[in-house]
Amino acid sequence: MTEFSLSDLEKIVGERARSGDPDSWTAKLFARGIDKAAQKLGEEAVETVIAAVKGDREDLVSESADLIYHWLVVLGLSGVPLSDVLKELESRTGRSGIAEKASRPKG
Ligand SMILES: N=c1c2ncn([C@@H]3O[C@H](COP(=O)(O)OP(=O)(O)OP(=O)(O)O)[C@@H](O)[C@H]3O)c2ncn1[C@@H]1O[C@H](COP(=O)(O)O)[C@@H](O)[C@H]1O
């Protein structure tokens, strides 16, 4: 299991966005703004769906990586930290009772 996390990628995206490096895809996307970044996110989502429906495992992994990267770019451009999304997801575990069920003794 890799140690690499979404939080690591969020940091890289933030650093590359601020780098001004002409070779950086991240810096280019940030310069082009939210409309272009959101469009790319939509395209990667569609490509991920196609890979899943085709049952192409290799493409599904690759397109999922593109999707998550572009999603973090859109979050960054929108000023939404990843931690806000994780907090929202965490709050939903309580809503469904999964967290309580997991800690309850069996039997
Ligand atoms: N994870 C990614 C990542 N996934 C996809 N991409 C880029 O996303 C782009 C999408 O490719 P497409 O073919 O869909 O787009 P395109 O045809 O080139 O562009 P358009 O014609 O649609 O405008 C490609 O240029 C990919 O290289 C990524 N670019 C960067 N990262 C991460 O960001 C880091 C910093 O990258 P740079 O900002 O490029 O230094 C990298 O080390 C990676 O960790």
UniProtKB/TrEMBL annotation:
GO molecular function list: ATP binding; phosphoribosyl-ATP diphosphatase activity
What is the top-level taxon of the source organism? Bacteria
Assigned keywords, A-Z: Amino-acid biosynthesis, ATP-binding, Cytoplasm, Histidine biosynthesis, Hydrolase, Nucleotide-binding
Q: Where in the cell is it found?
A: Cytoplasm
What EC class does the entry list? hydrolase
Q: Which reaction does it catalyse?
A: 1-(5-phospho-beta-D-ribosyl)-ATP + H2O = 1-(5-phospho-beta-D-ribosyl)-5'-AMP + diphosphate + H(+)
BP GO annotations: L-histidine biosynthetic process
An example of a Gene Ontology cellular component annotation for this protein is: cytoplasm
Instruction: List the InterPro entries hit by this protein, alphabetically.
Output: HisE (IPR008179), PRib-ATP_PPHydrolase-like (IPR021130)
HAMAP family linked: HisE
Q: Which family does it belong to?
A: Belongs to the PRA-PH family.
User: Under which name does UniProt file this protein?
Assistant: Phosphoribosyl-ATP pyrophosphatase
The protein's gene is named hisE
